Fold each of these.
Amino acid sequence: MLSNMFLTPKIIGILNVTPDSFSDGGLFVDGKHAVARALQMEKEGAHIIDIGGESSRPGAQPVSVEEELGRVIPVIRELRRRSPIAISVDTQKSIVAARAIEVGATMINDITAGLGDPKMFFVAAKFGVSICLMHMKGTPQTMQASPHYDDVVGEVKQFLASRIAAALQAGIAKEKIIIDPGLGFGKRLEDNIALLKNCDHFLELGCPILIGVSRKSFIGQITGAPVEERLPGSLAAAAIALQKGASIFRVHDVAATKQFLTTTLVPHGSAFR
């Protein structure tokens, strides 16, 4: 059974409080600016704000627990004080996840699907929060070093199935699990295209599908557009994913994505809220 929250499409607004993220790095390292951006995305139509304090762009270097806590906790605390919006913490570290939940986060977005920290599933189960499990080949430091797949859709699906099973065994309720095929994380252009075209294959796993295509490099490879000009390509990729069953869209451009989803769903008799 899918969580009621994800039965209709949802928008996750990206808020990187980092100096080095690929698109918005350095824009929101100041806490006041970060909270203001989160409130702006809420007004534009975001259902969830995903706050990350460690970049996962290709080649990004890890940061310490203390540094990550210092970046995300004040922002989550202040945002929760000012808004009831759902908050996701984008982290690989169970300590950061636990502290974020204690001050107001309601979801964990873990790009390692629980493999980066063996205590992550324990934290999610203990607090009863939603958790997104993503596929990534390697680490941010190595993931784009000649990735190769014999069958990218089958291999990613098998990985996600195994991580769902591990999460369930750890005591996480099935309706709290979200899956993300990890476009751009250890994928070639042809791999990203194959995953988009076959997104519906992941529906068989019984969890809501999150897609993160916003401004990613594969869109630049297709269109030649620099990162700040990839909104049209991002919306086109989101359209393909929506048609193939994705229901959660992690984006930088919330207002444009809301308009896109609203217009796309109306002819099908669906309302976007």
Amino acid sequence: MKTKLDEINRNIYDIKNKDDYDFKIKKGLTPEIIEEISKQKNDPDWMRNFRLKALETYNKLPMPTWGPDLSELNMDEIATYVRPKTKMTGNWEDVPEDIKNTFDKLGIPEAEKKSLAGVGAQYDSEVVYHSMKEELLSQGVIYTDMETAVREYPDIVKEHFMKCVPVTDHKFVALHGAVWSGGSFVYVPKNVKVEVPLQSYFRLNSPESGQFEHTLIIVDEGASLHFIEGCSAPKYNKVNLHAGCVELYVKDGAYLRYSTIENWSKNMLNLNTKKAIIGKNAEVDWVSGSFGSKISMLYPMSILNGEGARTEYTGISFAGKGQNLDTGFKVIHNSKNTSSLVNSKSISKNGGTATYRALVRINENAKGSKCNVSCESLMLDDISRSDTIPVNDIRTDEVEFSHEAKIGKISDKSIFYLMSRGLSEEDAKAMIVRGFADPISKELPIEYAAEMNNLINLELQGSIG
């Protein structure tokens, strides 16, 4: 009899279309290449100058040496801009057949029909499809691709673009500032509650290339939003690079939930940067599932600037053979009575490495603040590795702070108990893993919880027992 694990097939994520593009920039990173990207994107002068300065910063900053080994990344072998053979459209039927089939198989239009208020779909370096329901337009919600936002809302973009995540943060943020393309722009006006999620999906098809989408979300005072980000790429035997950037501005009394399921292929270096600035009595909740990629370095960050600001992080990563997933969360408490809650889980198997790397800083003026951190790691064999590297920087005594970490192997006693109830050893182990991941999947909308459970099944397939 087939088990559920056998029946899941990763083929939908490994769809490869012909590398057929309208324009692909030559490989490498020079001022001439940046100028060409800017010309291709019809940038205003301020953005072209921004890109060139970011390149200068990139050339000055060192490679990070404290995390996974990035020595195989050679920017001379990466094309930083690939424009597909299509223009952006709001009509799904107008998307070219091969691209449409890819997104159809990944379930994007179906998710839109059932449960989303708006969808953006990016293929390689450009958004190819964008739509939003009429009632949101009538409420003044703006949801569009970043290039359109640069042209049509220049003042608000200039005020916020790479101010939350400055190009000096680290080398790959500077790279992003130089070559960014695609991504989403969202503005939710004061007191508008967006009841149904918005989603952007990022698909990288072209080999030996990079994806550098920029997401900028502003949730104004008293407003609320749930934004979902999905990512995937087919497997190639050459390195691909993902260095996107997410900037979230959540004003006083506002609420944002930012959910991500990342399912990159095992040749991807995922060096993404995400940060939120949170106002008085506002809240940002992060929900993150990190699967796939050869290397991930991903640490979303909440900056609690307003009194009573809150943040929660709920995340899981699953590292298999040949993977080094270095993930975690950073939070800065800058004001009184702020609170943060961190719940991180990681699973490693077949020699994979899962690292939880985190920073909690509670500054002197953040009296009355609370922070609770819990990180759990589950190893499925004797050859995998799990590390917890927290930095807790508490600068006032008037706080409540707790940190709990657990690292353990899958329990033989639990497996024996489940096998005594009629399960095979493989099914018993799979049930334990799913139970371990359940608190994360519960935080996702049902379609995305199902996708995460499928990804867990794929990771488990043939690897345990």
Amino acid sequence: MSPNEPAMNQADDNKTAMQFPCAFPIKAMGRAKDTMADTVLEIVQRHAPEADARALKTQPSSNGKFVSVTVTIDAQSREQLDAIYLDLNDSDQVLMTL
């Protein structure tokens, strides 16, 4: 980088990495319970009301103890995604998000 080039820090890089709106898959993992998919969908719909069960996919773990739930939304902003992930991580049923 030459001395005349502006320095780009990681925060600047994160802001330009995605363009909105865009299709964005939100994945949450938790114990395999009947309510896991409903819980994830309910949380996502708080921030993306247009998301519905057709946008939801579940995948059980090989031993059947855990399940991953993916909901693809039409993300409008980084702030929207951050809010979804904060709410998912606050849920007792969600063990991990990606």
